[in-house]
Design brief:
HATPase_C_sf, 5 strands, Heat Shock Protein 90, Anti-sigma-factor_SerPK, kinase, five-stranded antiparallel beta sheet, 139 residues
C-alpha cells in the first residue's frame, strides 16, 4: 500500500511511505515531478532531482532492509540552498559510499551519479535506520 500526502504548499515538506520495492522509485519520481512542476521548476534541474531520487531509492532497496513496517520513507523539501531529497530505510551492515565503478561494471554507479548531480550528499544512521540526503540545486 502506498501512502501519499496531498499536494503540499511550497513551504511544506513531502513525506511518502512507499513499499520496499524497486517499483517505488517510479512512484516517487512521478510525485516529485508533479510537485516540482507545481512550484515552477523544470528542465535539467527537474531531471537531475528525479534521477537522484531514483538512485537513492534503488540503493536502499538493493543494499538495505525495509523499515519495521516493510516500507521505505521518501522525503523532500525546498530550502534556500536547493531541494533536500531524503530516503530512509531500515539500515544495512555497511554504510552508503560512492564507488568508482569501471565502464564495464554492471552496477556501482548510483552514488557516483548522486555525487555528480547533487551539490552535496550525506548519511545519517542509527542502529535501526539509515537516511541518505542529497541537496540538488534548482536554479
Amino acid at each position: 500500500m502506498t501512502t501519499l500526502s496531498p499536494q503540499p504548499p511550497a513551504s511544506e515538506p513531502v513525506t511518502l511511505a512507499l513499499p520496499f520495492s524497486a517499483e517505488s522509485a517510479a512512484v516517487a519520481r512521478h510525485r516529485l515531478r508533479d510537485w516540482l512542476h507545481g512550484h515552477g521548476a523544470g528542465g535539467d534541474h527537474l531531471d537531475d532531482a528525479r534521477l537522484v531520487l531514483s538512485e537513492l531509492v534503488g540503493n536502499a532497496v538493493r543494499h538495505a532492509r525495509p523499515l519495521s513496517d516493510d516500507t521505505l520513507r521518501v522525503e523532500w523539501d525546498h530550502h534556500d540552498a536547493g531541494l533536500d531529497i531524503a530516503v530512509t530505510d531500515g539500515g544495512s551492515v555497511s554504510s552508503p559510499e560512492r564507488l568508482d565503478a569501471a565502464v564495464s561494471d554492471l552496477a556501482g554507479r548510483g552514488l557516483a551519479i548522486v555525487d555528480t548531480l547533487a551539490s552535496r550528499w550525506w548519511v545519517e544512521a542509527t542502529r535501526s535506520r539509515t537516511t541518505v540526503h542529497a541537496l540538488v540545486e534548482l536554479s
